[in-house]
User: Fold this.
Amino acid sequence: MPALVYPVLEEIVFRGATQGLLWKTRLAALALGPLSGPNLLTSVVFTVLHLALQPTILSLGIIVPSLVFGYFRDRYQGLGPSIVLHIFYNAGFLLIFIRAA
Assistant:
């Protein structure tokens, strides 16, 4: 269940609300290649907040998938693609840990 619920909630809060609001600021004019300024800042915030919940190395590893989720949110102007990707990403990790146990 967490592999489904958390990605949906996180995408609504981070890619929907945070990244969406940042598109209304000066950050919208910034980009690093295909990555928008709003995506970059949202991904940094998302990663930093994960530092409180998990070990540093795992938290830092979140920046790359976060940027990918944000890219798809920007590219398709909606949360559907980023939610689906996030669910598959979390489910993959869950399966890895279940098999390792």
In short: Helices lie at 2-22, 37-50, 56-60, 63-76, 80-100. The first strand starts at residue 31 and ends at 32. The beta strands are 31-32, 35-36. The mean pLDDT is 92.
